[in-house]
Amino acid sequence: MKKPLHGLRGLMTLVIVLFHLFALKYPGGALIGHLWHGVDVFFVLSGFILSYVYARELPFNRDTFANFLVHRVARVAPICVISVVAYFAIEKAIVLYGFQRQNPLDTSLRNFIGNLLFLDSNLRGFMSTPAKWSLSNEIVAYLFLFPISYLLARSRRFMVAMLVTLAAAQTVLWADLDRMSLGLFTRCFPAFAAGCLVYHLNLKLSNAANILATLAGYAGFLLLPTKCQVLPATLIVLAATADTGVVARLYSVRPLQFLGTVSLSLYLLHEIYTMAALAVLRKIPGSLDAYNYWVWLPLAASLLTAALTYKFIERPARDGIKRLYAARRASRQLLTTA
Description:
The chain is mostly helical and 338 residues long. It has one domain (3-333). Helix content is 73%, strand content 0%. The protein contains 16 helices and no strands. The longest helix is centred in the last third of the chain and has 42 residues, at 296-337.
């Protein structure tokens, strides 16, 4: 993957972690309230990166599409399973020991299975574990929108038409904000399609244009409402596709590269510490007044957990699944040619 895109993913992960850490204390804050727009950048990034990585395997046939799905499952499933089990266990412990949470997780068996199968945020009646809703939406984009985008890529006009159609659907569905704001059509599909479109248009911007696109993108990120985030997110990702220049160098610094590497584990697991800490602090009178002083402890714990989880669980599980699939595929080819 391009280093600037890897660094951008790390930065957006940190932005979302900071949103979850501070939104509880400053729910109406003008700046804090806009940090969750990092998810929209994630969706655009996913559309672009998948197009960038799998372009050579298209058009998909049965084998190449199976390979694509296995690699996607290997990437997201192991850490998603760990996160679902962890959040359900912590929620059970919070209830067992008499702690309270403002928005308790539905710990029913039905909801547990729904989260494992990525049904949450795609079907009504299921409640996502923290942060996982966007991954569940992306799974659907992998299955439907990504292959369709390649069929349409033969004509840029059709790609633009698809993006306009999804943007229009987003505007219409936003009227049901409470139910649809985390859904497929209001955030995931338009942004994912925009990422695919950025790749297929193959735009090359100058260094000055990249800087302007980045500034305009982040201005929209911080100033525009959530339903208008497709364009700012697209500008941010477009500027990060360059391999050289000021923007590329900024995103390529080591801290952002590290965050990009552990981004999935950090994104899915960081709220474990927020949940536990808030449940405990609500039992201690006046402790929430010192929120700004202790909030960095969950952040440090989240970073350490993400690094360890990536090294000992996420990466080994991902590589193991890929090796098993490759071995099975090779043995099937041997049987076919025998």
